[in-house]
Write a structure and sequence with these properties.
Blueprint: H1 3-7, H2 22-42, H3 52-71, H4 79-101
Helix pairs in contact: 2-3
């Protein structure tokens, strides 16, 4: 048995990784609560005003990734299913950014 196989719990029949334990779900829930607290907290720090939107979007993306990986079980599904979920999401985000930037209204200083 190699070192990687010893670290990853697997089911005997299928050879697939098992789902996370209750402790892992509670840890993830605690992390999600902490990130939510940070999101509320950064709104009140005036020095973060110039980077507030990217900061909140980054925190939200992190929360989204944790929820999708653990609570929607994409971490334990096949890579094909993960690709089928992530590829349209990346396409939609790219399209939203492209449409938003067409007018240049996102610029802080005018052209």
């Amino acid at each position: 048995m190699n070192a990687h196989a010893a670290d990853t719990p697997t089911t005997a029949a299928a050879g697939k990784p098992e789902h996370a334990s209750t402790a892992i779900y509670l840890i993830v829930a605690g992390i999600l609560c902490g990130i939510t607290g940070l999101e509320f907290g950064v709104i009140y720090v005036r020095r973060l005003a110039p980077v507030l939107l990217p900061l909140l979007l980054t925190l939200s993306a992190g929360k989204f990734a944790l929820v999708v990986m653990f609570y929607m079980h994409l971490r334990y599904d096949s890579r094909v299913l993960t690709f089928l979920f992530v590829a349209p999401l990346v396409l939609a985000i790219g399209l939203a950014v492209a449409v938003t930037t067409l007018t240049g209204a996102f610029l802080v200083y005018g052209r």
